[in-house]
């Protein structure tokens, strides 16, 4: 897509006369490559679950859950569930939860919780 426009004072400080062509790439959702963020997040999930599993070894008679709190601007909340589903949950962990945005208005939210995994109680 092309557009022609007059530059604003101070926008282009180079001393040139005539017509200047400036190429600006505006990222779109189609241009977004989240492979690095997906891989890094999956590794971080595994690391957190392994750390929690080591801690939970002494609590065999209790329901052991892990709460994951994701933040960043590379992945959406909907991207997380497949990453957890693709991860082997250690036997020492009974439940995996995450924080989510619970929208209370068009531009406001509270912190909510969403269970991503639950080991059957009889196991």
- Spell out the helices and strands N to C: HEHEE
Number of helices: 2
Shape by Cα distribution: elongated
Structural class: alpha+beta
Please indicate the percent range of residues in DSSP E strands (runs of 2 or more): 15-25%
User: How far apart are the first and last residues' alpha carbons, in Å?
Assistant: 58 Å
The count of β-strands is 3
Q: Are there runs of 5+ residues with pLDDT below 50, and where?
A: none
Spatial strand sequence of the major β-sheet: 1-2-3
Mean pLDDT: 82
Main sheet record: 3 strands, mixed
What radius of gyration results from the CA coordinates?
23 Å
Q: Give the proportion of residues in helices.
A: 10-25%
Summary tags:
alpha+beta; 123 residues; 3 strands
Description of the structure:
With 123 residues, the chain is of the alpha+beta class. The chain has a domain at 35-118. 23% of the residues lie in helices and 19% in strands. The chain is built from two helices and three strands; from the N terminus they run H-E-H-E-E. The chain has a three-stranded mixed β-sheet with strand order 1-2-3. Strand 2 (95-103) and strand 3 form a beta hairpin. The longest helix has 22 residues, at 35-56. The chain is elongated, with a radius of gyration of 23 Å. The chain starts with 34 loop residues before the first helix and ends in a 5-residue tail after the last strand. 7% of the residues are buried. The model has no long low-confidence stretch (mean pLDDT 82).
């Amino acid at each position: 897509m092309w557009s022609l426009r007059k530059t604003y004072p101070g926008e282009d400080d180079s001393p040139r006369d005539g017509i200047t062509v400036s190429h600006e790439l505006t990222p779109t959702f189609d241009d977004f490559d989240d492979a690095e963020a997906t891989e890094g997040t999956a590794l971080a999930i595994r690391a957190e679950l392994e750390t929690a599993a080591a801690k939970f070894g002494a609590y065999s008679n209790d329901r052991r859950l892990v709460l994951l709190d994701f933040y960043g601007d590379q992945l959406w909340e909907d991207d997380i569930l497949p990453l957890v589903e693709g991860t082997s949950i250690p036997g020492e962990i009974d439940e995996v939860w995450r924080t989510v945005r619970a929208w209370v208005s068009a531009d406001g939210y509270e912190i909510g919780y969403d269970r991503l995994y639950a080991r059957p109680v009889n196991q």
